[in-house]
Structures are given as structure tokens and as C-alpha cells.
Amino acid sequence: MSGRPGDRGDAGQAIEHARRVDPAALPTTERQARYWIDVARAFDQWGKPDRCCRALLAAERAAPQEIRRGPVRTLTAGLLRHDRTLPGVRAFAHRTGALTAGTA
């Protein structure tokens, strides 16, 4: 087990594990962003789209370049079905590349 949230299969356990980690203590902004992306994945698996979205936004604040990766685009595309209840998710989807100007 790598110790990353989402790796254990049980999203609730992964979130509990993530709560014990101080992302600011991680050595690089890229690793901080990856931490938040892993947290977002666990919240997505747990069926918590609002918390997933907040974690992805935290990843973007930590290292904006990291949100254009495939896993983030995939998570974001899934969040688009909640766009009426997740303010800003469409704009975030544009920034990640999950939603292009032609598909808005």
C-alpha cells in the first residue's frame, strides 16, 4: 500500500487517513496538488461531489499545472453532471481541459 488516499478501496478509510496528513508539510507544490487529487478521488468514490470539487480546487491552488492531467479531467467530467449544484465546476472544467469552448 502506498498510503495515498483512494489506494485502499474504502473511500471512507482513505479520507480518514488523509485527515492525518498536513498537505502544507509535503515538500513540493506538485506533491501537495497530487495529495488533493487523491483526496478528490476518494470523495468521488464516496459519492461526495461537493467535497471532491473542493479538493480539486485545492489542488489547483497548490499547483495549477497539475490539474490538466488525465485523472483530473476524468474526475471533473464526472462532476459536470452536478453543475447546477456545484458553482464554478464548468469554469474549472474549462481550465482542466475536460470541457472545451466548443462543448460548453
Set down the secondary structure blueprint:
Blueprint: H1 11-19, H2 29-45, H3 49-62, H4 70-79, H5 89-96
Helix pairs in contact: 1-2, 2-3, 3-4, 4-5
Order of helices and strands: HHHHH
Strand content: under 5%
Radius of gyration: 13 Å
Distance between the termini: 39 Å
| Tally of individual helices | 5
Report low-confidence residues grouped into runs of 5 or more: none
Give the rounded overall mean pLDDT. Answer: 87
The count of DSSP E runs of length 2 or more, i.e. the number of strands, is 0
What is the overall silhouette?
Answer: globular
Largest sheet: none
Name the helicity range.
55-70%
**What structural category do the secondary elements indicate?**
mainly alpha
Task: Summarize this entry quickly.
The mean pLDDT is 87. The protein is 56% helix and 0% strand.
Walk me through this protein's architecture.
The chain is an all-alpha fold and 104 residues long. The protein contains five helices and no strands. It has helices at residues 11-19, 29-45, 49-62, 70-79, 89-96. The model has no long low-confidence stretch (mean pLDDT 87).
Key words describing this protein structure:
mainly alpha, 56% helix, 0% strand, 5 helices, single chain, 104 residues
